[in-house]
Structure formats: C-alpha cells, structure tokens
Amino acid sequence: MLTGLIKGDNAFVPTAALRVAIRSGVDVAALLVTEQGRVRGDADIVFHGAPAHSSGAVRLSRGADGDEEGTVRLDADLTGVEEGIARVLVVASTEEGALRDAHGLSVEVFGPDGETVVAYEVTDAGSETAMVLAELYRRSGGWKFRAVGQGYVDGLTGLAVDHGVDVGEGPREDPERIPAPAAPAAPPAAPSGAPAQGMRLTRDQLLDMTPDQIRALARNRTQAQAEAPVAASPPPASQPDPSVWTCGPVFAPRTVTGRDNDVITVKDLPPGPVMVELAVKGGGYTGLWPLDDSNAKGRAVVNSTEKDFRGRVIASVPEHGRLRLRLEASGTWQVRILPLSEARRLTEDRLENWGPDVLLHTRGTADVAFRYKGSSNFIVHVYGLAGHTDPTTLPSPGRAAVNEIGARRETLPLPEGPLLVYLSVAEGPWDARLKDVRPHSGGQDAGSPTKLPAPRGALDRLRRAKR
C-alpha cells in the first residue's frame, strides 16, 4: 500500500475500477485529455452539471455515508477509458477565497477492495482559485497516479485555456466600463483562447499567459478602443501593455526519477527557457549538462560536490520540443521540468532555501537583501523581462550582479519588475527578502490578483454547476 506522496511524485495504480476521494469542500471536476493535454470537446468535462462521461468510465458524486463532510467522490474505471484519452485530470476550484483556505485539501485513491492505493495532501496552496490536484495517466501499458498540485491564480479561466476548454465570449456585466455599441455581427472569438477584452489582469496573470493569448488579448483591446464611442472614458493608465509580459512557455510540469548517472529526455515541451529542479539523495559529485542534437554537452548548469544536492536552474528547450540532459550523480534523484511562471516570488517576507534557484520580482523598484551561508561561490544574474516579447529566449543578463565566495550579506538594487533573479551558483543555505519596495509604475499591486469576469461556454456551465 502506497500513501503520502509529495508534489511531483508518481506511482503505478491497478488498471481497475478505482474510487478517488477529494476532501475539503472544494468544487471538483475531471478533465479527460489527449496526449496533447487538451479535451476533445465539452463532453470530456465531468462535473456536477454533467456528472458522467459518455463512456461511463468516469463519474462524479457527492461523498457517501461515512465520508468526511465536504468529500467528493470520483469513480474512474480505468479499463473503460477510451483509447484516445491519455490522462484523467482531477481538478479543484473555489468561487470564494483561495485554495490556501481549503484546510485538509487532499486526494486519496482506493482500489476495488476498498484499500488505499495512493494519497496526496496539498500543503503549499496559495492564492490560486483553481488547481490540477492530480492525474491518472497511461504509462508502460498500465496506469499511474501523479501528485500534480499545479495552481492557477486566474482560476478556471487559466486552467481551461491550458487544456482546450471552450471559453467563448458572451454577454457579461461590467459596471466599471461603458459598453460598446452593438455591432451588426459579433467578431469571432480569438482562436488562441485569450481572455475576453476588457478584463483587468494582474501582472502574475499576464506572466502565466501563453504568447498566443497575449497577442490575441492585445488585438482585442486594440479593436475595442477603435470601436468605442468618442465620449467613452479612456482605459485606466494602470493597465500594462500585455505585449511586455512574456516569461517563457506555459505547460504542465514534468517529473522524471532515477538513480546514478543517466541521460534524461523529456519530449513534447514548448520551446523556450524552463526551470529544471534537481534533487539528489546521496553524496559525491553532481553534474548536469544540456545536450544538443549531436549529443555534445553544453555549459554545465550544475557542478557540485555537496551531499544531497538540490536546486533549480535554467535550461532552454529547442524548437523541436525535446529537452535532453546529461546527469552525473551518485544515488537516487528526481528531475522536474517547470515553467518559469512557477518561480518563487520575491516579497518582503524572508524566503529561505538551499542551492541554486530562480526567483521572480514583479513589484516596483526595490532592494533585495541576501544572506548566504555557504563556503563556496555565490553568483546571481538578473534578467529584465519588461519589453522582452520573445518567449523562446531570455534577454542577456550581462555581467553577474553578484559574484562572491564564502558566507556574506549582499543587498542588490532591482529595477521594477517583471524580472528574474537567478541564483545560478549557491552551494549552501541562503535567504532573501525585498526592502524599500516602491509602487510599480503600472499602478497595480501584482500580489493582489483581480477577480476575473466569469467566462461563458463550457467553462461557464462548469462554474455554475452548484447553482
């Protein structure tokens, strides 16, 4: 019996009729997606408004007698899942508050005999209002369970766009804006699934958008301004130009595990810069290099003799979407490929960690204060993202902003965000926090996401399922 997985872990489950219990009183849905990570249509969304998939393999119900209050059950007969479906995503969302307020949020899978097969408790939920809690996916002729825990600060809107759910536009109430006059025919919805024009987005939400969404949003806003009546008020000056808020591709995190020296290949990734999170259990030397198409090593992104190495570094996915890494390590290891949008945010609260890391600054001008407790190199680069519109590359960071040896305190002045603060070498514990933070010139606080208007189409029906 396997229990207690942590975020990113996976384990095989029986190819049988399983029961999944989701606890903590959240709204629950299941998305049946293809190898491309997208639903084929509305019928592949299982929620309380449509509680059974047409195949009969996935069904949703309230908890039965004996279940904890707020438990939702998802029955998944893996023997009956259609061949075109590669993964079954277990999704949680909330209409009020954030998922950090959902105490005891967890997923537990029971086998046909009623015994627990695997379980995952979400311990790091934040301001997200929607999350892919876990997934059941095909692997090596069977099925596995993965603890995903991928949250979306823009709620079901962002989650839906990532997985091909229809978020088509429709009538909506927006008392803060003067509606445009009725046109003879409504313009077609942007094929990229961009949010409806008129939405006021935070910087974090814009950072999480794909390049196609950003371009579609910019087109929609330009068209809205051209069609608006002369007497209409101009848009608030606090709304940032969305074309400057790109930060690498957005995708579901991938996890690979193994032992000792190996070559790691992760396929079907969008091209561009990504985070590689490496954790090694064991001593000796740890090295990590990207491999090009001729299998030649690039510049090392990890080069450490520390025991139980862990850290996050930056690598770049080639245009063909196949990332290959050469790892030298002694002991068991786990590698996770993450979008840059999942970088930890710098705030006035002290952030503590060990090893290299990628931090995101989205506030106004500020100072970042570091305390490094290691005995070897401490190297920090800063990547300014404002005005950088190519999501497949990062701007040049120039010379290292910090390049010192040994334990020390260092305060670094930062321009306003968005920008990445990359601790490329840090073999030891450190902490960081912002000081003297000034308001962003955009006028919005990126730490307080705005509530987005409810979308229409399949996603709107999903939102209204409990009414």
**What's the story with the biggest beta sheet?**
6 strands, antiparallel
Radius of gyration: 23 Å
Q: What is the number of E strands?
A: 28
Main β-sheet, spatial strand arrangement: 1-11-10-7-3-4
Q: Helical content, roughly? A: under 10%
CATH top level of the largest domain is Mainly Beta
Question: Which segments are poorly predicted (pLDDT under 50) over 5 or more consecutive residues?
Answer: 169-200, 230-246, 444-456
CATH topology-level name of the largest domain: Lipoxygenase-1
Task: Give the assembly state of these chains.
Answer: single chain
Write up this protein.
The structure is a single chain. By secondary structure, this protein is mainly beta. The protein has four domains: 10-165 and 455-466, Lipoxygenase-1 (Sandwich), CATH 2.60.60.30; 207-244, no CATH class; 254-338, Jelly Rolls (Sandwich), CATH 2.60.120; 342-435, Jelly Rolls (Sandwich). Helices cover 8% and strands 37% of the residues. The two termini are 38 Å apart. 40% of the residues are buried.
